[in-house]
Amino acid sequence: MLRRLSAVLAACVMLGACMGNGEDGLGLVGMGPTPQPGQLYTWMHPEIDEAWAEGYFGQGTHVTLVDRFIGSQFRANLGYGEMEGTHGFWTSTQISVIAPSAQIREIDFSYRAAVDLVPNKLNVMNLSYSYPGSSSSDIQNLTSAVIEHSLIAHAHAGNALIVKSAGNTSVAVDGVFGVNSNRKDLLNIALIGAPSAIFVGALDRHGTPDDPASLTGYSSFAGSDPTVQNQFLSVGVLSELTGLEGTSFAAPIVSGYAAILGSKFTNASPTQIANQLLDTARTDTIKSFDPALHGRGEASLSRALAPATIH
Questions:
Q1: How far apart are CA 138 and CA 257, in angstroms?
Q2: What's the rounded Cα separation, in Å, for the pair 251 and 72?
Q3: At a CB cut-off of 8 Å and minimum separation 6, what does 298 contact?
Q4: Cα–Cα dist 154/163, whole Å
Q5: Are 201 and 128 in contact (CB under 8 A)?
Q6: pLDDT digits (tens, 9 = 90+) for 2-55
């Protein structure tokens, strides 16, 4: 397990995907000011404020983050002051700012048990990391890794909405990392076709029809597989405002959106919430939209919240 953990952490650093406060006591809290609930910061999409105005703050939902909450920290600013935090601290804080009423659980990579479900709540699980490998032994390690095995099982059973960062290798979600590599993100591969799993890429801004966004140069993309295209969303990552760059910080935005949807559609399943986000994505806010690059398009919280019910 420790060997696997070291490999994952090293790969996250290499990919730029790993750039933490939790009920499990596994988080490392950043030192400094704290965000104000219900405060829309400049990096956030204005549609979030519209959701709050309707009373949807993620109440009644549970978000689990598997991330790095112990170890090295770095400086960033989510709008309420520059401070130090671990990679997991920053992804967790993003979600807590977007969906301040969601219950959040933080699990460090060193956790050795399966990730369980919280009953009677929408379960969202944010995975802002990769599991690189290529050999049969790497695949065996993934299928036998207790945490990942449980996450993959939840996604394929539709028991939890799994939000996975697409990666920062500028290749397809299911592609090799580079010309001289045969390694892929095996966690991505394992989640392809799972009914309640979403891959998230990073746009360079919040797109509008008059000022469409582009996929960032580092972001992995949907690729040629129609199954992946149907599972792929993107959101704006405004790294120039926050200092947080990478699809690691795109995924928590979608996790926060999912929690907000769960606070309105209280009887919806994880698969229904996933489909609602995917089916209401916008293509008119993306420059030269291409399903092979952008999948379903840019996530739109206001469109996803618009109906009275979902099925």
A1: 33
A2: 21
A3: 203, 206, 207, 213, 233, 234, 235, 236, 281, 282, 283, 285, 286
A4: 12
A5: no
A6: 333 333 333 333 333 333 333 443 433 445 677 887 899 999 999 999 999 999
Tell me the three state secondary structure of residue 275. Answer: helix
Query: Could you tell me which CATH class the domain 2-305 is placed in?
Result: alpha beta
Length of the chain: 311
For residue 182 the two structure tokens come to 């045969």
Q: Which amino acid is at 217?
A: G
| pLDDT single digits (tens) 136-147 | 788 888 878 899
Residue 193, SS3 per DSSP: coil
DSSP state of 89: H
Taking each helix axis from N to C terminus, what angle separates 251-264 and 270-279, rounded to the nearest 10 degrees? Answer: 110
Helix (H) or strand (E) segment spanning residue 186: helix 186-191
Phi, psi (deg, nearest 5) at residue 8: -65, -45
